[in-house]
């Protein structure tokens, strides 16, 4: 924690969940900002008391790691009258009610792009593991004897069609890497025009066409009202027979039961999943029992490099806002005029 706050010192809070040390280093070197690290568990009264006087809040983006009472909801905001800016500790912001923040004049930022390289790499780790049956091979070498290499024969990805749902910073990196694998890339992103999609290394396609033509479908879209449940039984049935499904996006975009049925029934060849409705999924989750599913624990963006980038981005954006300057990754730009005025009133 920095020294005691004066009347003109901005009070910034974060919880004691793991965070790369660069965050505290940057904030500690920022004049006029006092950092408080509050317990995520075990002393709710102390944490609430700290947040009630906070001007800025760095909040974890991990919905299943952050206790619900510390999500940025309308209820919490009502108890934090001085709060003027909130920073999500990731590209996602599932733990923040952005509409409630906007109504209260609170600016919200995320760290889009901070983990883009890591997530793009992980996308191919999952895809190659499924296509080349890497996990199956590892397990059989550990536990079985008397099998041949041909029993573990996989498939190349070279020459296939990769369909990307979402072409933001992560999707764009995935599209660029695809060139090295000799993949043709289709992309569906309702927020981008056709020329922008082409400039990012993909051919624009409607969702139905993408599903019908792609050998591999990879999700890189946010979880919101328009994407929740987007991939259910109908979408999986519309995918090319023998296709592979990959998601490093968010749990809740795909229906896990429908995906299980599509895999178990043989319509899809396999799936690589980094995200889950519940994280981590229970050990008895049906998808974990399928040999053609490669599963990871929402670790696509969890590398030393990505966590450092995200922590640096969050600290830098919070310091920027507390100086009264507009940050680069503003989620609710309509709230900035009110937030900027509130920040000016702190000085």
From TrEMBL:
GO terms for molecular function: NAD binding; S-sulfolactate dehydrogenase activity. Residues 125-300 form the D-isomer specific 2-hydroxyacid dehydrogenase NAD-binding domain. SUPFAM superfamilies: Formate/glycerate dehydrogenase catalytic domain-like, NAD(P)-binding Rossmann-fold domains. InterPro entries: D-2-hydroxyacid_DH, D-isomer_2_OHA_DH_cat_dom, D-isomer_DH_CS, D-isomer_DH_NAD-bd, NAD(P)-bd_dom_sf. Keywords: NAD, Oxidoreductase. The keyword Transferase does not apply. Signal peptide: none annotated. Residues 71-332 form the D-isomer specific 2-hydroxyacid dehydrogenase catalytic domain. It comes from the Bacteria. Its EC number is 1.1.1.310. Belongs to the D-isomer specific 2-hydroxyacid dehydrogenase family. This is (S)-sulfolactate dehydrogenase.
């Amino acid at each position: 924690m920095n020294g005691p706050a004066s009347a003109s010192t901005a009070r910034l809070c974060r919880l004691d969940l793991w965070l790369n040390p660069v965050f505290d280093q940057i904030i500690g070197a920022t004049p006029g900002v006092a950092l408080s690290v509050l317990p995520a568990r075990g002393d709710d009264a102390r944490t609430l008391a700290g947040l009630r006087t906070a001007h800025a809040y760095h909040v974890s983006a991990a919905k299943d790691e952050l206790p619900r009472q510390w999500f940025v909801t309308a209820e919490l905001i009502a108890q934090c009258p001085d709060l003027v800016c909130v920073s999500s500790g990731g590209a996602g912001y599932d733990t923040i009610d952005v509409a409630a923040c906007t109504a209260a004049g609170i600016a919200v930022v995320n760290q889009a792009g901070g983990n883009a390289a890591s997530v793009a790499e992980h996308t191919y780790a999952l895809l190659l593991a499924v296509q080349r049956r890497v996990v199956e091979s590892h397990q059989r070498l550990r536990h079985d004897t008397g099998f041949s290499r041909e029993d573990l024969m996989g498939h190349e990805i070279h020459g296939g069609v990769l369909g990307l749902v979402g072409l933001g910073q992560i999707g764009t990196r995935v599209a660029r890497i695809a060139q090295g694998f000799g993949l043709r890339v289709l992309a569906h992103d309702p927020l981008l025009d056709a020329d922008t999609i082409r400039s990012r290394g993909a051919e624009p396609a409607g969702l139905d066409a993408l599903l019908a033509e792609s050998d591999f479908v990879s999700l890189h879209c946010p979880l919101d009202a328009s994407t929740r449940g987007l991939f259910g039984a109908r979408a999986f049935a519309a995918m090319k027979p023998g296709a592979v499904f990959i998601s490093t996006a968010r749990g809740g975009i795909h229906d896990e039961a429908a995906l299980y049925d599509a895999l178990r029934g043989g319509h899809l060849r396999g799936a690589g999943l980094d995200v889950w409705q519940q994280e981590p999924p229970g050990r008895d989750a049906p998808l974990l029992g399928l040999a053609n599913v490669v599963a990871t624990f929402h670790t696509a963006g969890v590398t030393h490099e990505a966590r450092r980038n995200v922590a640096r981005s969050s600290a830098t954006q919070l310091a920027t806002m507390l100086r009264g300057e507009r940050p680069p990754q503003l989620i609710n730009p309509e709230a900035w005029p009110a937030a900027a005025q509130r920040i000016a009133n702190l000085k």
